[in-house]
Amino acid sequence: MFHHYGLGFARSSLQFDGPWGPRTTVQLPGMESMVHMDPRDASQSRGSRFGGLPAEPTISSAKDLIAGADADYASIAEMKFAAAFASSTDAIHISRVCDGVLVEVNDGFHELTGHSVSDVLDGRLFEIGIWENHADRSRLADNLAADGHVSGFETALRHKDGSARTVSISARMIELAGEPHILAVTRDISDHVRVEQELATSNARLGRMIGDMTTTLGRIVESRDPYTHGHQERVAEIASVIARAMGLPEYCVEAVRMAALVHDVGKLSVPSEILSRPGKLSDVEFDLIRTHSDAGHSILSGIDFDWPMAEIVRQHHERHDGSGYPYGLVGEQILLPARILAIADVVEAMASHRPYRPALGLAAAIAEIEDQPAKYDPRARDACLRLHADGDLDFITAQRIQYGHA
Ligand SMILES: [Fe+2]
Description:
49% of the residues lie in helices and 12% in strands. It is of the alpha+beta class. It has 3 domains: 1-87, no CATH class; 89-188, Beta-Lactamase; 204-402, Orthogonal Bundle (Hypothetical protein af1432). The strands form 2 sheets. It has a 5-stranded antiparallel beta sheet, with helices on both faces. Strands 1-2-3 form a 3-stranded antiparallel beta sheet, with no helix packed on it. Strand 6 and strand 7 form a beta hairpin. The longest helix is centred in the middle third of the chain and has 34 residues, at 190-223. It is elongated. The termini are far apart. The structure holds fe (ii) ion.
């Protein structure tokens, strides 16, 4: 039976331009000619036993093919495999399932483990002592037994020189001479893993730096207004607790927290004597203070945060029913972090002292949220009320005492 691995042509439709050799050309019906590689190229590869064994059978099979004998493309597949086996920079090994004896390894195996081909052939892989963790070896064997193949199995191997290598193993069960064997391809990913770890460390440092700078920016704003000292950090804490209680993913909680830390940054553009003046503000003064949302957007829009920080800050005085400012946005027109921030801001502001009034207390702040359901996002409002009922907002009162605002 003539097989047609990968080509799809019956043998009878193929023509060869002469005896099999390094550049034998095979004419395919309706196509340009294609050139076959001489299988002896593969057999001349260094090291591997596999490079030596299949050479004669493979060549004779190829010759038989030319001569029209009972050969098939299986031999071509063998040649391709032999070439890949010998030239691969990945470590490839074949081991017998029944006793773990290695029957084939390539040069890549030598590169990866430091063990020469003659060192390891006919030995058992576990006897060589290349596994950092023997439990991984058992886990790999279990996975193979269960599924017949394993892909991208990460583990650590020990090089002959004592150094550890992080590797990714792909393996499958094959049958050789009627016996089950494991064919495994092992790639050294140590450099890749190290670069990933360095990148993660660098990203974490960058994240901390942005967090520190954001906190510092918030403190600069508050330095102009001693009455609201700590306001943004407390709002950040309350908003984070509400966001978590809403079940939001941690990256969203972080967006809320970061925005809260600088939500009043636009007050830098408001004269400090207005910010800290006791007593009732005039309409003009109040309008001036209201510009801080847009001013905050202008300041933050020049920074490339991971979240739309500038827009969240611009919207923190918007209200769910459209009664807020600066644009009177409604419901989901307002970004979710801004809706959460709005509640946290109100709760903290009412619970704390202001230049124009004493602290109203946490109970009054919660009553405001309870009594004005239309103003606030229903999910954020529910989470806030639930937290209060469970005593999980009591830290706000404790902080007021700490900051002398009780
Ligand atoms: Fe504000």
